[in-house]
């Protein structure tokens, strides 16, 4: 039984609840494009593995993030010395374990002590492979930053596009209308006096053309109260399109566009997509088990099988 374009029955007041058991891991491809279509356009590409861990010592929900590929800048490995240095030193953070709140939003770095232990070996490799006063100064400053938990948390909150996009607090109740508002901050507006992006979040009432749940974000920059009446204040927009698994509510893909600026706007596009296991083509629809009668869409199971058009073709061209 095909479940495309079917009514979705959520629990509670249209609550979106994540079903991601401990030790289950998923791989994602990440593409970040800065100023797409402009002369100064750049893109960053890499792959990550995200694993749900058992709760922390105080019951915190934990996720582990691993970079499982090199980081490519404009399709090549970083070639500038400053970029190669930052990439080499940044390896100290992974595997990265984070805590999230009850709605799935990023809270803090959990494995700070592990990062500090790794720093000694990472620092040695950096000093062995790079020379000059710039390197020594960089290593010294990074060591000081790593010693401060708050500095690390702030660094990821202000700079990491994957965490800021993937770990947003989307697992919550959306009310009878399935539309709510939230204020979200993203790295593109860091350092500026704004509240964030006032965002309308709309949860789909029906599954889409291949049975997935759609969550749409539409936001605009919300200035601080004392800047509301300034004529030349910064403006910007945010559009996010999440596709979620109809049963487990895990992210299948995200495409988000951000803009911010006064006269010339800076633009960032973030694309995150699930990578099929064992490098197999993800080429099945979400279907109901035909042996179970009256099963609601949210209790469906995935049945592998051929389809007229591949999943990724429909995802990219829908």
Summary tags:
318 residues, alpha+beta, two-stranded antiparallel sheet, 6 helices, 21% helix, 31% strand, globular, disordered C terminus
Report on the structure:
The protein is α+β, with helices and mostly antiparallel strands and 318 residues long. Helix content is 21%, strand content 31%. α2 packs antiparallel against α3. Residues 280-285 and 287-318 have low confidence and may be disordered.
Briefly say what this structure is.
The chain contains 6 helices and 14 strands. The chain has about 325 residues and is of the alpha+beta class. The strands form 2 sheets. Strands 1, 2, 3, 4, 5, 6, 7, 8, 9, 10, 11 and 12 form a 12-stranded antiparallel sheet that branches.
In N-to-C order, the SSE pattern is EEEEHEEHHHHEEEEEEEEH
Structural Rg: 21 Å
Structural class category: alpha+beta
Helix content: 10-25%
Main β-sheet: number of strands, strand sense, barrel status? 12 strands, antiparallel
Write down how many β-strands occur, each being a DSSP E stretch of 2 or more residues: 14
Strand content: 25-35%
Low-confidence stretches: 280-285, 287-318
Rounded mean pLDDT score = 83
Query: First CA to last CA: what distance?
Result: 21 Å
> How would you sum up the global shape?
globular
């Amino acid at each position: 039984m095909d479940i495309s374009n079917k009514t979705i029955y959520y629990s509670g007041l249209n609550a979106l609840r994540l079903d991601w058991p401990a030790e289950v891991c998923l791989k994602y491809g990440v593409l970040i494009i800065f100023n797409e279509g402009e002369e100064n356009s750049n893109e960053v590409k890499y792959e990550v593995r995200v694993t749900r861990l058992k709760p922390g010592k105080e019951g915190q929900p934990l996720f582990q993030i691993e970079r499982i590929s090199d980081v490519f800048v404009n399709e090549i490995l970083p070639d500038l010395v400053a970029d190669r240095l930052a990439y080499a030193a940044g390896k100290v953070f992974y595997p990265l374990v984070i805590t999230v709140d009850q709605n799935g939003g990023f809270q803090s770095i959990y494995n700070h002590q592990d990062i500090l232990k790794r720093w000694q070996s990472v620092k040695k490799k950096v000093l062995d492979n790079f020379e000059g006063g710039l390197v020594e100064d960089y290593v010294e400053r990074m060591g000081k930053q790593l010693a401060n938990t708050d500095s690390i948390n702030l660094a990821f909150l202000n700079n990491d596009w994957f965490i800021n996009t993937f770990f947003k607090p989307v697992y919550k109740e959306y009310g009878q209308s399935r539309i709510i508002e939230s204020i979200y901050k993203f790295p593109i507006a860091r350092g500026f006096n704004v509240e964030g992006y006032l965002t309308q979040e709309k949860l789909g009432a029906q599954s889409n053309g291949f049975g997935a749940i759609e969550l749409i974000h539409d936001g605009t920059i919300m200035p601080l109260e004392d800047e509301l009446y300034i004529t030349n204040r910064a403006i910007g927009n945010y559009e996010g399109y999440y596709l979620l698994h109809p049963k487990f509510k895990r992210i299948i893909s995200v495409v988000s566009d951000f803009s911010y600026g006064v006269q010339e706007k800076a633009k960032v596009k973030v694309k995150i997509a699930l990578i099929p296991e064992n490098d197999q083509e993800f080429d099945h629809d979400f279907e109901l088990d035909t042996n179970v009668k009256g099963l609601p869409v949210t209790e469906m199971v995935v049945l592998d099988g051929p389809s007229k058009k591949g999943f990724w073709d429909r995802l990219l061209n829908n």
